C-alpha cells in the first residue's frame, strides 16, 4: 500500500508577471518500508515538495493536486489540526539547514524534550515524567551517534558544530517514532565517515522498524548506496522515476544520464584528470522558465517537439517524461 | 629544481580563553611538512575541526604560524611581507556567495586586488579584468553585474577569477565544490583542471568528496585532530592506506560505491 501518494501536484507562486508554476505536475509515491530518493539540483523544487507535504507553505501560494493522500486520507482537504496531528505523530521532517530550523534561544535539551510525545512515557507519577524524558533523549542522541550527550544537550544551537547539529535534527525527528521520515539533505557538509554512519542508521531503522524514508538531496553517492527507488527532479518537473538499480544502470532521460555521469565516483573506467562530462549552462531561474520540457535549452537531444511538455511514459515500473529518450535512436 | 611550495614544520597553536575559572580550550596543529610542484594538485581531507582550514589559512597568510617556515620557489615567505604572498598564493573561499561584496559590481570586485597589488594603469586594469573574465568562461559584460544576478556556478567562477587575476602560482581553495550542484560541480572541476593545464598552477584544496579527490588530485594529506596522519600519492593512499583513520575513510567511500 502506498503510504504517501501524490499525483500531479502543481504549486503556483504569484510572481510579478502572473502565476509561476514552481512545481509542475509532480508525481511521487512512497510505499511503506521504501527508501525513496528525490534527486535534483538546488532550485529544482525539492524543498518545495517537502514543504508542500508538511504543509509549511505560505497561504497565498496556490497548491493543486489530483491526489495527495496519506494512507488514503486526503491531505489537502484536511483542516489544520488534523494535519498537525499527522505531522506530529506519523511524518517527521529533517529540515535542510539545522541552524536555521532550530530555535536559537533555547537549549538543545528543551527542544529535544519538547519533541518527545507523552504517549511514549510509561505510566508513572508525574514527577517521574521529566526523568523519563531525559533518559529517552539521551538514548536518541546515542542512537544518532552523539557520544557526549550531556554537553550537547546543555548547549545552544550555535555552540555545536554543524554535523552534530544535523545529527541532532535527525534525533528530534526520530523522537515520536514516525512512519515516514522526510530527510531534506541530511548529510550535507558531513565528512564521509559520519555520513556513512548516518546512512547506516537510516537503513537500519528502515529494516528493523519498517520506517519509510524520503531522502532528498543531490549527493548521488549517498543516495545510490541506500535508496531502493529514485525520482529525479528538474526545475519543478519530474523527469524520471523508478527502481534505483534500473535508473542507475539504464537511465532513459538525458538529464538523469548527465547527473549520473557528473559524479566521478561512478565511473571506474575514467582516467584520472580527464574532463568530466557536464551539461552546458545552469538551471534556469523561476522567472525565466522555458516552455514545454524545461530541460530544453540545455538538452543535447532537444528537437522541435520539446516545446511541448512531454507526457509521462513508462516501461514496467520505470517512468520517464521525454520525447526522445535515450533508448530510442536519435533521429 | 626546487619545488614550487615547500612547507617545513609549520605548526600553530590557538588558545581560546573560556572565562576565569574554566580551563582555556586549546587547538594545536602539530608540525606539517610537505612539498608541492608546479602543476600539481594536492587535496587535504579530514574531519570537521581537524585543522584543515587552519592549514589553508596559514598558507595564504591569514594566520601566522607559531613555528616553521614556508618557502615559495626556494625563497622564504616572510610574515610581514603580505604583498609578495598575495601575489603568489591566492585563496578561494568555501561560500562564494558570502565572499563577494553585494554592494559593488563584479568588475570592481576583480579590480580591487589589482589596485592594491599592482602598478597598472586604469586601462590596463580594465583589460586585465576582461581577460580574466574570459579565462573563466564568462563574458566581459559580466563586469557590470552584481552578485545577486549570477547563478551559483557563475559565482564560483568569479571567485576563481578573483584568485587568478594576479597570476598567482598557487591557489588554495577551502571546499570549493561542496556547495555546488552536480552539473555545476563538474563544470567547475573541468574549469580548474583546464586552467591548471594551461597556466601550470599549483592547486591545494580541501574537500569531503572523495570521488573528486581521487579524480583530480595528485597527492593527498590526511588530517585528524590537528595531526597529519598520512600523506602521499593519491593512488597509494587509496589502495594501500597505512593509518587506521585513512583506511576507515577509504573503506566507507568504497562501501558506498560497492553497494550498488
TrEMBL record, chain A:
Membrane topology: Peripheral membrane protein
Sequence ranges assigned to domain ABC transporter in this UniProt record: 4-260
Keywords carried by this UniProt record: ATP-binding, Cell inner membrane, Cell membrane, Membrane, Nucleotide-binding, Transport
Family assignment from sequence similarity: Belongs to the ABC transporter superfamily.
Organism of origin: Fluctibacter corallii
PROSITE patterns per record: ABC_TRANSPORTER_2
Location(s), subcellular: Cell inner membrane
CDD domains: ABC_NikE_OppD_transporters
InterPro entries registered for this protein in UniProt: AAA+_ATPase, ABC_Ni/Peptide_Import, ABC_transporter-like_ATP-bd, Oligopep_ABC_C, P-loop_NTPase
PANTHER family the UniProt entry points to: OLIGOPEPTIDE TRANSPORT ATP-BINDING PROTEIN APPD (PTHR43297), PUTRESCINE EXPORT SYSTEM ATP-BINDING PROTEIN SAPD (PTHR43297:SF4)
SMART domains noted in UniProt: AAA
Xref: Pfam families: ABC_tran, oligo_HPY
UniProt-recorded name of the protein: ATP-binding cassette domain-containing protein
NCBIfam families, per the entry: oligo_HPY
Chief location bin: membrane
GO molecular function, a single term: ATP binding
Automatic annotation (TrEMBL), chain B:
Domain ABC transporter: 5-250
InterPro entries associated with the record: AAA+_ATPase (IPR003593), ABC_transp_ATP-bind (IPR050319), ABC_transporter-like_ATP-bd (IPR003439), P-loop_NTPase (IPR027417)
UniProt-recorded Gene Ontology molecular function terms: ATP binding
UniProt protein name: ATP-binding cassette domain-containing protein
Keywords: ATP-binding, Nucleotide-binding, Transport
Listed PROSITE patterns: ABC_TRANSPORTER_2 (PS50893)
Coiled coil segments of this chain: none
Amino acid at each position: 500500500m502506498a503510504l504517501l501518494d501524490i499525483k500531479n501536484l502543481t504549486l503556483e507562486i504569484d510572481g510579478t508577471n502572473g502565476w509561476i508554476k514552481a512545481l509542475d505536475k509532480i508525481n511521487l509515491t512512497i510505499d511503506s518500508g521504501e527508501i525513496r530518493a528525490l534527486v535534483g539540483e538546488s532550485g529544482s523544487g525539492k524543498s518545495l515538495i517537502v514543504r508542500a507535504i508538511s504543509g509549511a507553505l505560505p497561504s497565498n501560494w496556490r497548491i493543486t493536486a489530483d491526489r495527495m493522500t496519506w494512507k488514503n486520507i486526503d491531505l489537502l482537504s484536511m483542516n489544520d489540526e488534523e494535519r498537525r496531528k499527522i505531522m506530529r505523530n506519523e511524518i517527521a521532517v529533517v529540515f535542510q539547514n539545522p541552524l536555521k530550523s532550530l530555535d536559537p534561544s533555547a537549549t538543545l535539551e528543551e527542544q529535544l524534550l519538547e519533541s518527545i510525545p507523552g504517549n511514549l512515557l510509561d505510566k508513572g507519577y508525574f514527577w517521574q515524567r521529566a526523568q523519563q524524558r531525559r533518559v529517552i533523549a539521551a538514548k536518541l542522541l546515542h542512537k544518532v551517534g552523539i557520544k557526549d550527550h550531556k554537553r550537547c544537550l546543555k548547549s545552544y544551537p550555535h555552540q555545536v558544530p554543524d554535523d552534530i547539529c544535523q545529527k541532532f535534527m535527525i534525533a528530534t525527528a526520530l523522537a515520536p517514532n514516525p512512519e515516514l521520515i522526510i530527510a531534506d539533505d541530511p548529510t550535507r557538509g558531513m565528512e564521509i565517515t559520519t555520513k556513512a554512519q548516518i546512512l547506516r542508521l537510516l537503513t537500519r531503522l528502515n529494516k528493523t522498524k519498517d520506517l519509510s524514508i524520503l531522502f532528498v538531496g543531490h549527493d548521488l553517492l549517498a543516495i545510490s548506496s541506500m535508496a531502493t527507488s529514485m525520482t529525479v527532479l528538474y526545475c519543478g518537473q519530474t523527469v524520471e522515476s523508478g527502481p534505483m538499480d534500473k535508473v542507475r544502470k539504464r537511465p532513459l532521460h538525458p538529464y538523469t544520464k548527465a547527473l549520473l555521469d557528473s559524479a566521478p565516483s561512478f565511473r571506474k573506467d575514467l582516467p584520472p584528470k580527464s574532463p568530466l562530462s557536464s551539461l552546458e549552462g545552469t538551471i534556469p531561474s523561476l522567472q525565466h522558465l522555458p516552455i514545454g520540457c524545461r530541460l530544453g535549452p540545455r538538452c543535447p537531444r532537444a528537437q522541435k517537439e520539446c516545446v511541448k511538455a512531454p507526457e509521462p511514459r513508462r516501461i514496467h515500473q520505470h517512468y520517464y517524461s521525454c520525447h526522445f529518450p535515450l533508448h530510442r535512436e536519435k533521429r | 629544481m626546487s619545488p614550487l611550495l615547500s612547507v617545513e614544520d609549520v605548526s600553530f597553536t590557538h588558545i581560546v580563553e573560556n572565562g576565569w575559572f574554566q580551563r582555556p580550550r586549546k587547538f594545536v596543529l602539530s608540525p606539517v611538512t610537505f612539498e608541492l610542484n608546479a602543476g600539481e594538485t594536492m587535496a587535504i581531507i579530514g574531519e570537521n575541526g581537524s585543522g584543515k582550514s587552519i592549514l589553508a589559512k596559514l598558507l595564504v597568510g591569514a594566520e601566522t604560524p607559531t613555528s616553521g617556515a614556508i618557502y615559495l620557489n626556494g625563497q622564504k615567505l616572510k610574515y610581514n611581507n603580505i604583498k609578495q604572498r598575495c601575489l603568489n598564493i591566492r585563496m578561494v573561499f568555501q561560500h562564494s556567495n558570502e565572499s563577494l561584496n553585494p554592494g559593488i559590481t563584479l568588475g570592481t570586485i576583480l579590480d580591487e586586488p589589482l589596485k592594491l597589488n599592482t602598478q597598472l594603469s586604469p586601462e590596463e586594469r580594465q583589460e586585465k579584468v576582461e581577460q580574466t573574465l574570459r579565462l573563466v568562461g564568462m563574458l566581459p559584460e559580466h563586469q557590470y553585474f552584481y552578485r545577486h544576478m549570477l547563478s551559483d556556478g557563475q559565482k564560483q567562477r568569479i571567485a576563481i577569477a578573483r584568485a587568478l587575476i594576479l597570476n598567482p602560482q598557487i591557489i588554495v581553495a577551502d571546499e570549493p565544490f561542496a556547495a555546488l550542484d552536480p552539473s555545476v560541480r563538474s563544470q567547475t572541476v573541468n574549469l580548474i583542471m583546464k586552467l591548471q593545464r594551461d597556466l601550470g598552477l599549483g592547486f591545494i584544496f580541501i574537500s569531503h568528496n572523495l570521488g573528486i579527490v581521487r579524480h583530480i588530485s595528485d597527492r593527498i594529506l590526511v588530517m585528524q585532530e590537528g595531526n597529519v596522519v598520512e600523506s602521499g600519492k593519491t593512488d597509494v593512499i587509496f589502495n594501500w592506506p597505512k593509518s587506521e583513520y585513512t583506511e576507515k575513510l577509504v573503506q566507507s567511500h568504497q562501501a558506498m560505491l560497492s553497494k550498488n
